[in-house]
Amino acid sequence: MSGFVAGAPSSSEPLRRFFQVARGAGLRVSAAEGIDAARAVDLVGFDDRALLKDTLALILAKTPEEKDLYDEAFELYFKRDAFAGGAAAADDDEHAAGEAPARGAQAAGDGMGGQGGQSLGSLLESDDRAALAAEMEKAAREAGVENIRYFTQRNLYARRVLDRMGLRALERDMEAMRQTGAPENLGRAQLLEGKVEQLRDAVRDFVERALLLYAKGETEKFREELLKSTRLSNVERRDMERMRVLVRQMAKKLAARYAKTRRRRLRGQLDTRRTLRRNMGWGGVPFITVWKQKRIEKPRVMVLCDVSGSVAAMSGFLLMFLYALNEALSDIRSFAFAGSLIEVSDILEKQPVEQAIAKIMQTIGYGSSNYGNSFADFEDGWMQYVNNKTTVIILGDGRGNRTDPRTDVVARLSQRCKRIIWLNPEYRSAWGTGDSDMYRYAPFCNLVSVCNTLRQLERVITDILEDAA
Amino acid sequence: MNDVLPAAMVPLESIEAVDQGLGAAGYIASRQISTAIYLAHHLRKPILVEGPAGVGKTELAKSVATWMKLPLIRMQCYEGLDESKALYEWKYGKQLLYTQILKDKINSVIGDADTLAVALNKLHSFGDVFFSHQFLEPRPLLRALEQPGGAVLLIDEIDKSDQEFEAFLLEILSDYQVTIPELGTIGAVVPPIVLLTSNSTRDLGDALKRRCLHLHIGFPDEKLEARIIASRVPGIDGRLLRQLVSFVQQLRALDLKKVPSVSETIDWARVMVLLHAAVLEVDLVRDTLNVLLKFEADVEVANKQIAGLTHKARQDAGVPA
Hints:
Oligomer: heterodimer
Structural class of chain A: alpha/beta
Strand order of the largest sheet of chain B: 2-5-8-1-9
Radius of gyration of chain B: 27 Å
Order of helices and strands of chain A: HHHHHHHHHHHEHEEHEEHHHEHEHEH
Number of strands of chain B: 9
Order of helices and strands of chain B: HHEHEHEHHHEHEHEEEHEHHHHH
Radius of gyration of chain A: 33 Å
């Protein structure tokens, strides 16, 4: 056991930086958790790498997904082979993780001062890899490598680290050696030359790893924020995978909150029957009062999606969102329409949403839309299933290519169902222009809303779940 | 271990000791589990155990209790669980009964009082007789705090309870104390070892997670599973054991609705021992497959591949074809 005591700076410094890395990787490490982790590490020490990993995992990673992130961050951070190819590297790897910082602290005493070049030279000559690694750690800390954010900064930081290690002084010394012209000095300079080259490589590696460690989280977060407020029709193909993950995340969050039937208390209304029943035990004396409650049921949803060219991307995301939300909804039936309307619940239930959407698009999509015709189809086939508990969501731009809008069908629908929510990916200023019938449909909808980014989509769906009373 | 000391005082001096202790109680723990128990004890933090059903989450709590010779207090969570069932309840019946019995005595207490105010004052001087410890019915949480020698508190399936109840647990989890309005704050005599289990049917709140060590128990690997079965089903033949474990491990790789977990492997091993089986035969496996798989659709999926799986399992265990 190494002697790490509570509060010893040697143990808290590498940990603090690991927390920073972990946060970057997407783990939430609060101050309290940091303290707990430090206490735990004081208890188990840095010696046993596997043990250290288990210990920190118990405190920092709170879900299976976080465990994966944590594993990755841990491996990256506590990997300090520093001088790759070195004889001792593989075996000492585990020790280096713990000892390097400690040695760094010791080395601070004798490594500093004006003779940086000399000490670096002698270190290189003596081939003391562990000491070199420690020196590099220290120099990196002083150079503030953890502030690196962009890959263009790699050379800058590598240079700074090398300077702090005293490379400049060493180069001067080497120049002086060559000047003397003595064969032994020349030989020495040549030897050092090779070593310095290795050192450069090692530092460059090191800085690159730092970039991976410290900058990855920031960049990811930035991209995600950006994606959440990008118009869904503009999302590029290469970002699709990330969008899917985001949608799933959002849906999961909402599902966790609304998956249960909830009860809302009706203030001040006594439930006489249940109060009497509850107090039977003591002769009907009402010790405990029971108040009336209203059950908040999960919403039954019918979604009508326009899958014609103009709105297709948006429809895909809406369906993806709703199906990821499955557990928070009691029943969901989906319909897709362009020129005419079909039910697509089956396709969506049997296949993963992404494939299903592609299939739906093939069957019906990409045509020009005819809203009137599609609504008429809906009335013929499915109007009978709409009841006063159903929330109907219609997604479309309301552009029927100058065909009859059949607002009478929507009027009948609005009388039957609990409410109609119309999501339109177009900006409000475009409604009613050209062939847009949006303002003809609007009077029959309980809510008409612009919805073209993931963030807006989330907001609308939260509203639906929130007051599904 | 020193048996003279109260069990909670026994120092869990190292992770190896935890390993051995749990082993002696019949629980074969992975290194991570032992580490969790060790840390929980030293950091005084509860452990939140997550993982699929049947990997031994509840069993872990039982084994810790057996090993440390502490009482196990178990609280099963369900929707609608509230304070009165988890923490304490007043014994209304007893209170009523006592007021009836003591009715006669009331005259001797306030007999000479002239006004209502004086009588009330006199009554007040007796304090809250009816809201004292005698009339308190302790429920699991309070019971765990009141155990003189400490206890193992198992809060089972916390994900089944409501969010409000989760919030209510925070005080007990971080400070090992509860507040009863009529009596004040009651702290633990000896902080109990607290284990919470969850099947992840819903996400737990961050506040709760932050207060706990988070232990995820997955399916064990082949070696560990073999050790677990060997300890749970004594007298099982080594070769049969290897075949069973290999078979189940392969089964888990299939696309099943509910993959068999350790408890099912144990049951299956028991069945095999009862049937005096020495090697896995295809027919035997087919007849007993319902011990492992709980869905008709899963049985169908597995049935198609039984021959292959059995063959592979026998090969792994070195049984001649």
